[in-house]
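The aim of this short unit is practical: by the end, you should be able to scan a pair of folded records and say something sensible about each. We start with the first protein, listed as its amino acid sequence and then its structure tokens.
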Amino acid sequence: MKKLTQNKTQLIVNGDNDSPSNKPFGCFCLKASLLLLFLIHFNSVSFSGDIPLNFQLEPGYSNIFPGNCGIDGQSSSMCVIGQGSIDPDTTPFYQGRVSIDGNNYWHIIVGDPANGFAMESYVPVSGLLSATGGKPSDFFPRDTDLETVSGNGWDPLGLDPSRNFDYTGNGSADPTKVVLRQVMGGIWDADTQTWSCGGEAFCSEFLKEEMAFKPKITQTINDVPGMMISDFELDMSSISYNDDSTAGTIKNTLIITDPDMPTPYPNAGDFDMMTDRQAGYSTVTGGRYTYTPACTNPTTCWSDGNIRDGDWDFEEGSYSYVAGDADPLNYEWDVYWNPDQNPIGPGNEAKCDSGIITGTCP
């Protein structure tokens, strides 16, 4: 793994998506996202060198609030919602604090690579408050209602149209303040702590090993019983977020292996983007974008100063693309909610409405 090369004393990032884990005091953790939390326990684990993006816990991590929730069969007493209500969602979840080369980070793991999905991230620590965008949580006083405690976990996907990114935090993350790995499908080898596609029907990996640099994205589809093979990779890992002149290295192939495809076109569906590009039929612009942060210090990211008085606004950064446009603040994040996986609904508001949580709902 590569070393962190970015200033590690600034913002903590946040982005929200789908499927929660067990939640400490109603905080809602979402797949493909980073969590907004207020942390109140300060033991940490120290080590030097590379960030180990291998979905593993280090000794002592379970002492950090909320600690381990369902990973390796363990669980912390803090893995609850509301005033101690048991969450029906059993998605493994972990949050701890770690010191690397003298800098502190929150370490978060959601899911289990052996079960087909896992996400791991490290973001810089900034006191008790993670200035990440979205509605901030407030754990004090202890008997406050669940919506106040939940922060952006109350309605994380913004199903209520009155709740935009200022409430949910969606799209307001600073990508230069995180290292992140997310895997889907594939095969996990627990002995070697490695993940690979391994010939599975589908697998993908999002890997961002350095804060200052962009990610590498891979996706493979093996259509059973081997009638089609699709292999995609966009490597932007050597491109910084202030460079829009350099395109990523791309591999995009499609191979049709259908023996019944009529002659004389048995390979009519085959496609290799490298060959196509060399012939001048395509131009690669993937990776040619920049990100400009709106603030460089957590205390300056909230334009109204007091984030708990109900009158606040998070100052999000912006992207600029050489070709096309994509504004994450305009995405409809609820499309990532799978009702089959989350029958109760996303967020703690749905748990209150369903009666799972009583006594702490507004």
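Turning to the second protein, read its sequence before its tokens, just as you did above.
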Amino acid sequence: MGLALFKEKRLSIRRKLTGLMPGRLIFEATKIDVDGKPVDVSANGMGIVISKEIEPGTAMTLVLKGGHEVPLTVAWGQPDFGKQDMFRYGLVTVNPSDKLEDIFVEAGCLR
């Protein structure tokens, strides 16, 4: 008998990032900057690593140059096992028409 294969839940592939953000990521409720590092991106989501614990459902906004804003929601979070006292979160776009991958590509933030 063989081993069960891992089934990927994501609908699109994730692409690695340089660690640079194409704008300011802020907490929507307080307008305070999120001090974190983006690690990967897909069409409508991205992974970030930050030192602060936050709850799923937290609203964030990616504010791009030129004033365009991309509303995001924290979909999930877990301790980042590679780094002590750090947490990894998955963010998703509120509006499916906002294509995060395209934004990161245009800003030159892909590896």
